[in-house]
Specification:
Blueprint lengths: L1 H52 L7 H14 L9 E6 L2 E6 L1 E6 L4 E6 L2 E5 L4
Antiparallel strand pairs: 1-2, 2-5, 3-4
């Protein structure tokens, strides 16, 4: 009876170690993606402040989208200028993006949709 308990504890330990290794491998893929998404969102906030503070919203949307796409590509994200939407609603400027990233979960691949967005009040000087 004692021998079965020893074998079961070894099997449980091995399964636990495999589970921890799997979680670490997935973490190495997901954490940089989330961090880069946060960096893109912060970059979007900086562009939004520029548009809101200096009232440069009209006529500069294409260059703002191009700059945001460059920032996203520098971060290794699959974004293009068409991935971004810049909308002025009342006194708010809203910048949003939509892109998908494929993550390999060892046994399957999954596409994850990322939708960062920021909103800021427009100040007219």
């Amino acid at each position: 009876m004692m021998e079965k308990q020893k074998g079961e504890s070894r099997l449980g330990c091995i399964l636990y170690i495999l589970l921890v290794i799997y979680v670490v491998i997935i973490g190495f893929q997901v954490i940089p993606l989330m961090y880069n998404n946060l960096q893109l969102k912060q970059g979007m906030g900086g562009m939004e402040e520029m548009a809101a503070s200096y009232n440069q919203f009209r006529g500069h949307m294409a260059s703002m989208k191009k700059n945001l796409a460059k920032k996203g590509m520098d971060l290794g994200l699959p974004v293009t200028p068409d991935s971004f939407k810049i909308i002025k609603r009342g006194k708010n400027v809203e910048i949003s993006a939509h892109y998908e990233v494929e993550i390999n979960f060892l046994f399957m691949k999954k596409k994850i949709s990322m939708n960062p967005e920021v909103s800021k009040i427009v100040y007219n000087f």
